[in-house]
Amino acid sequence: MPHLVLVDGHHMLYRAYWAIPRTLKKSDGELVNTVFGLGAMLFTLLTKEEPDALAICFDEGDQTFRHQEHEEYKGGRAEAPDDFYAQIPRAFELVDAFGFVRVSDPLYEADDFLAAYALAGEKAGMRVTIVSGDRDVMQLVSRNIHIAIPHKGYQQVEYLDPEGVLAKYGVTPAQVPDYKGLHGDPSDNLPGVQGIGPKTAAKLLQEHGTLEAIYEHLDTVPASVRAKLERDREQAFFCRHMAMLKDDIPLPVPLSELVLRDLSVDSLLSFLRAMEFSLLVKRFQGLLITPYGAAHYRASERDELVQETEATVQKTTQQQLSLFPSKTS
């Protein structure tokens, strides 16, 4: 099955920002730790996942349809430092240099596009991996759609299939919106039913299946929990509504255009060198000599860089050998 990888862009950017010290700057003083970290993660992702198609989805603003329905949506979330946001344009340049598709829209969140592309990919017979740590996307998990939660950059990855979601949260993927309706989500400023914790929320859903069924059988729920459910009934259903991803939105870029083929070596190499990322240049060179690199990057440009690399290695070896006098008989 062709492998479609969908990346939560801001999640990866945020991880990159905190993973790489903010002392990493270009020679002209420009801070580039986030851009370097993102590049490192993307190279590791390509090596581990070997995607046939890929898109990176970003949030574009704070006026999505959810913000329009709930003014306080995501209110109170801690803002990232200014020097994080200052690097986003450079990060976009990096993504473009890789040749990857960037997707965003002011009306929808990145998660909505992850949902729409994941289902489109599954329908097209693709195996889908969503790279994100956001709990909302857990509702998308199926036999052919899995979640990859990166740890330590992308060096360690936690993969979740339907059984993994159940083991981690105590609910099935389909129950994730109901779970958030009960437990809420502080990161999105969704209170859920106040006083209902994750364990109680999971237990209620394990026993009844859905939010509707819980409210239809309130007489079977312990009195203390029943009082909370009755008090925040409207809030529970509203929070579930806010947590449900929009998987039926039009795809801004056709699925066929996410396919990775004939990628440019020169554009990415030029960007990495301009950013003074010598370590990432070496990683790129290493990727190009793998079967995956040979299959997905422009042959003429790839061969030229490989020859250049081999010539450099040979020259360096000769220089090192010249330091040692030859033995004479």
Describe it for me?
The protein has two domains: 3-169 and 245-258, 5'-nuclease (Rossmann fold, 3-Layer(aba) Sandwich); 173-243, 5' to 3' exonuclease, C-terminal subdomain (DNA polymerase, domain 1). The mean pLDDT is 89. It has a six-stranded mixed beta sheet with strand order 3-2-1-4-5-6, sandwiched between helices. With 329 residues, it is α/β, with parallel strands linked by helices. The protein has helices at residues 9-19, 33-49, 65-69, 82-85, 88-98, 110-123, 162-169, 176-183, 198-208, 211-216, 223-231, 233-243, 265-274, 278-288, 291-296, 299-321; strands spanning 3-8, 53-57, 101-103, 127-131, 145-151, 156-160. 50% of the residues lie in helices and 9% in strands.
Task: Write the H/E string, N to C.
Answer: EHHEHHHEHEEEHHHHHHHHHH
**CATH fold descriptor of the largest domain:** Rossmann fold
Oligomer: single chain
Number of strands: 6
Distance between the termini: 63 Å
CATH class of the largest domain: Alpha Beta
Strand order of the largest sheet: 3-2-1-4-5-6
Assign the structural class, choosing from mainly alpha, mainly beta, alpha/beta, alpha+beta, or little secondary structure.
alpha/beta
Looking at the structure, what is the overall shape?
elongated
Q: If you average the pLDDT, what whole number results?
A: 89
What is the CATH superfamily label of the largest domain?
A: 5'-nuclease
Low-confidence stretches: none
